[in-house]
Amino acid sequence: MQNLNLYQIEKQQRSGPQKNQMLALLAVLVLLCLAHAAWQGWQLRQGAAQLSQAEVAAQEQETLLAAAKASFVEPQLDSGLPLELAAREADNQQLQRLIGYLQVLASQRTAGFVAPLQALAEHHPASGLWLSGIGLSAGGTHMRLQGSSQDQELLPQYLQRLGQSPVFQGREFARFEVLRGDDQLLHFDLSSQAGDKEPGNE
To answer: Is 154 exposed, middle or buried (0-12, 13-18, 19+ CB in 10 A)?
Structure first.
């Protein structure tokens, strides 16, 4: 009878990467290192080129700056300029004061003429009395009236109404002349100044 050995020793099988795979992986790693080194070298060359260009540009700027400093001439302030400016400023201020004074004077003169003329028109009789000349001076302070009247009562009444006006209140005529002309009209010439003998302004 033959004995059979049912227990056979199995040969252990090795697991893991093979030698060829290891060599291929190593080759890929070497290629990656070479590529990285090449890229780093290219970056260094680019940086060196840019640095060289920057140094050249900086040198050119320094040269231009040195040339500008050499050719620069510092301006000299005219010693008489401050005095001239002060004189111009004083003249300008004086002119401004003169303009302001003239504006105030013009407004006063305008206001002084408007009010008396308005009062003369408001209190003027409807008929029978005519003003042929109205003279105003000194901003309306001095006044001269010339005209004619058909009735000797109209002129006193007119003057009385003017005296009640705030514009003419307290005013007095220093010269009062009334003459009857060949036309039978009463011609009057009134003035706040006694020496006012010239024709009035219409």
So the answer is: middle
Instruction: Determine the Cα–Cα distance for residues 89 and 108; give it in Å rounded to an integer.
Output: 29
**Sole residue written with tokens 């003239």:** 102
137 forms beta bridges with: 142
Helices (H), 3-80: 19-71
Instruction: Specify which residues 130 forms β-bridges with.
Output: 148
SS3 48: helix
Burial class (CB in 10 A: 0-12, 13-18, 19+), 146: buried
CATH number of 106-191: 3.30.70
Instruction: Please report which confidence band the pLDDT of residue 155 belongs to, taking 50, 70 and 90 as the band edges.
Output: confident
Residue-level pLDDT at 187: 92
Check pLDDT > 50 for residue 202: no
User: φ, ψ for residue 67 (rounded to 5)?
Assistant: -65, -40
Mean pLDDT of the chain: 79
Q: Map out the domains of the chain as residue ranges.
A: 106-191
Over residues 69-90, mean pLDDT: 81
Yes or no: say if 149 and 155 are a contact pair by the CB < 8 Å rule.
yes
**pLDDT the model gives residue 148:** 92
